[in-house]
Design goal:
nucleic acid binding; 9 strands; PrmC_N; Release factor glutamine methyltransferase; 11 helices; seven-stranded mixed sheet
Length: 287
């Protein structure tokens, strides 16, 4: 028999307290905040707006209970609400793509550092664009830039196109469904990619929210986690314009192996930029 929420939907404080306890027992981090986020989304408001209401309508209560059940099953919050923030963007997300993470913003920071002229009409390629987060964040910062995002998953390519329109950037980019960069021709001033980089044997040890819900194809880097980087290294010299820059996301412990792959193809390693946790996250290479 399914467990039900005892408090009345009109008693928001009791409702949140009961939800927090259930989330805590399920092993969800920051259960109080998660309960409040779910309630705010169900009520059609934000956390600040939630402070101004005493209870939920019957419809909002039903939505809250449904969403709570999904979160108790460790479905990521972003998939439940259908949205996530990244850089300055508000993005739609779906199970077709990885959820944008703050660590990936390190790549945008690296781009801004190495390409300081924000008036440049950069030609940008984002390989494995997913939600389009990297490409769209760069286009938002470089007002004259244009870009192409590619993804092997047609649902992801469509989602990236939707996010471009959602953030008023559709006039400066297109998204294509293809393997790596098969459907495009260089040269590009900037190439971005957050490829699959988790060694296959490590996938089972990821958090339940990730391993049970996010797309394995976007996570699985093969036996050593380097399959995607070998493919990227092989095509990067032809994609980059002379003096062009590529910024790639790295996984933990890949700050030696991946640069070596790029150097083998004649590319110069300009920087390995750490994320806020001190992990080498953004590899910057130049042609």
């Amino acid at each position: 028999m399914k467990e039900t929420m005892a408090p009345s939907p009109a008693n928001l404080r009791a409702l949140l307290s009961a939800a927090t306890e259930r989330l805590h027992r399920a092993g969800i981090e920051a259960p109080q905040r998660e309960a409040r986020l779910l309630a705010a989304h169900a009520a059609g408001t934000d956390l600040a707006g939630l402070l101004r209401i005493d209870g939920l309508t019957d419809a909002a209560h039903a939505t809250f209970i449904h969403m709570l059940g999904r979160r108790l099953n460790h479905e990521p919050m972003a998939y439940i609400t259908g949205q996530a923030g990244f850089w300055s963007l508000d993005l739609a997300v779906s199970p077709a793509t990885l959820i944008p993470r703050a660590d990936s913003e390190t790549l945008v920071e690296a781009v801004l550092h190495h390409l300081p002229d924000r008036t440049r009409a950069l030609r940008v390629l984002d390989i494995g664009t997913g939600t389009g987060c990297l490409l769209l964040a760069v286009l938002a910062e470089y007002g004259q830039a244009t870009g192409i995002g590619t993804d092997i998953n047609p649902h992801a390519a469509r989602l990236a196109a939707h996010n471009a329109a959602r953030n008023a950037l559709a006039s400066r980019c297109v998204t294509l469904c293809c393997n790596w960069a098969d459907a495009v021709r260089g040269p590009f001033d900037l190439v971005l990619s957050n490829p699959p980089y988790i060694p296959h044997a490590d996938l089972a040890g990821l958090m339940p929210d990730v391993v049970a819900h996010e797309p394995a194809r976007a996570l699985d880097g093969g036996p050593d986690g380097l399959v995607a980087y070998r493919a990227l290294a092989a095509i990067m010299p032809a994609l980059l314009a002379p003096g062009g820059t590529a910024v790639l996301e790295l996984g933990i412990g890949q700050d030696r192996s991946v640069p070596a792959l790029m150097r083998e193809r004649g590319l110069e390693v300009a920087e390995i930029r750490p994320d806020l946790g001190g992990i080498g996250r953004a590899l910057v290479v130049k042609k």
